[in-house]
């Protein structure tokens, strides 16, 4: 009996490791009050074994295209934050391609084949774990949801549902668009951003499922900002890595400027 129990525990452990080693989701724990995620960074050759492409029939906002090179932007931002601060942010990266599963949708619109459920749920379990750890450890924490858009290839497009997913960043001081705001910091590094004021609507990239689920719109959320990176800033590996490095540097500056605001509990 005892052996059977030990055996099944070992099996359970092995299956967890295998799910991870399948490479469908990559995640890392951090010690900075930041989590970076990229739900659409999985390139087209990254299939989910035995899962067919989604058809999207009757699915609102269906989009099977990946956000080219956003995985590189995430990786470079993590590396730059570590270089600047000596500490790592949390990160969660979907390694599967969006043709099979869309991690930035509620489950019922995210996948069509049961084989995609585990990757989807793993992605969100990792995000939930990171957000819970950040809430426990810090007064304030930031989630940056990294995407790509090409309708305005020369801008980084902010999505916060009009400020609602990052409401805590706008109390007392505007920590996004104000003098020491994150978007202001990106502009200082040569990136045009949109919108630049709260008068202009964020549509059509106004903030999706991820920022609404883990942002300040939720009782158990943190401050969440969706960044839709224009194609110009991620066309080719070198450009994407530069953009990620600049994003990491802007985040490091922001942490310094708002050290009192984000301090540990
Ligand atoms: Zn996206």
How does the SSE layout of this entry go?
Layout: H1 2-21, E1 25-28, E2 34-38, H2 70-85, E3 90-94, H3 107-110, H4 117-137, E4 142-149, E5 155-159, H5 182-188, E6 192-194, H6 209-214, E7 223-230, H7 237-257
Parallel strand pairs: 2-3, 2-4, 4-7, 5-6
Antiparallel strand pairs: 1-3, 5-7
Helix pairs in contact: 2-7
Residues 40, 67, 104, 147 line the site of zinc ion.
| SS content category | alpha/beta
**What is the N-to-C order of secondary-structure elements (H for helix, E for strand)?**
HEEHEHHEEHEHEH
Domain module tally: 1
User: Which ligands, by name, code or SMILES, are bound?
Assistant: zinc ion
What count of helical segments does DSSP give? 7
Q: How much of the residues is beta strand, in percent?
A: 5-15%
Number of beta-strand segments: 7
Poorly predicted spans: 1-21
What is the CATH architecture annotation?
A: 3-Layer(aba) Sandwich
Task: Assign an overall shape.
Answer: globular
Helix content bin? 25-40%
- CATH homologous superfamily assignment: Zn-dependent exopeptidases
CA gyration radius, whole angstroms: 19 Å
Largest sheet, in brief, is: 7 strands, mixed
Distance between the termini: 45 Å
Offer a concise description of the structure:
With 265 residues, the chain is α/β, with parallel strands linked by helices.
Summarize the structure in words:
The chain is an alpha/beta fold and 265 residues long. It has a single domain, classed as 3-Layer(aba) Sandwich (Aminopeptidase). It is 36% helix and 14% strand. The protein has helices spanning 2-21, 70-85, 107-110, 117-137, 182-188, 209-214, 237-257; strands spanning 25-28, 34-38, 90-94, 142-149, 155-159, 192-194, 223-230. Strands 1-3-2-4-7-5-6 form a seven-stranded mixed beta sheet, sandwiched between helices. β2, α2 (70-85) and β3 (90-94) form a beta-alpha-beta unit. α2 (70-85) crosses α7. The protein is globular, with a radius of gyration of 19 Å. Mean pLDDT is 92; it is low at 1-21. Bound molecules: zinc ion. Residues 40, 67, 104, 147 line the site of zinc ion. Zinc ion binds at residues 40, 67, 104, 147.
């Amino acid at each position: 009996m005892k052996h059977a129990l030990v055996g099944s525990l070992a099996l359970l452990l092995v299956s967890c490791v295998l799910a991870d080693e399948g490479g469908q989701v990559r995640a890392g724990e951090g010690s900075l009050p930041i989590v970076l995620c990229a739900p659409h960074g999985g390139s087209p050759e990254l299939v989910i074994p035995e899962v067919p492409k989604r058809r999207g029939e009757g699915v609102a906002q269906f989009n099977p295209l990946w956000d080219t090179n956003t995985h590189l932007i995430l990786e470079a931002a993590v590396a730059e934050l570590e270089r600047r601060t000596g500490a790592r942010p949390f990160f969660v990266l979907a390694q599967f391609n969006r043709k099979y599963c869309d991690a930035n949708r509620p489950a019922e619109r995210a996948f069509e084949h049961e084989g995609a459920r585990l990757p989807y749920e793993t992605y969100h379990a990792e995000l939930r774990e990171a957000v819970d750890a950040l809430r426990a450890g810090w007064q304030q924490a930031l989630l940056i949801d990294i995407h790509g858009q090409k309708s305005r290839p020369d801008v980084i497009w902010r999505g916060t549902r009009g400020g609602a997913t990052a409401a805590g960043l706008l109390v007392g001081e505007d920590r996004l668009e104000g003098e020491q705001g994150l978007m202001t910091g990106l502009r200082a590094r040569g990136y045009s951003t949109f919108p630049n004021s709260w008068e202009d609507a964020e549509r059509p990239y106004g903030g999706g499922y991820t920022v609404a689920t883990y942002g300040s719109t939720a009782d158990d959320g943190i401050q969440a900002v969706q960044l839709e990176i224009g194609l110009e800033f991620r066309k080719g590996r070198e450009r994407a890595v530069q953009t990620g490095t600049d994003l990491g540097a802007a985040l490091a500056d922001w942490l310094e400027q708002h050290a009192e605001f984000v301090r540990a509990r």
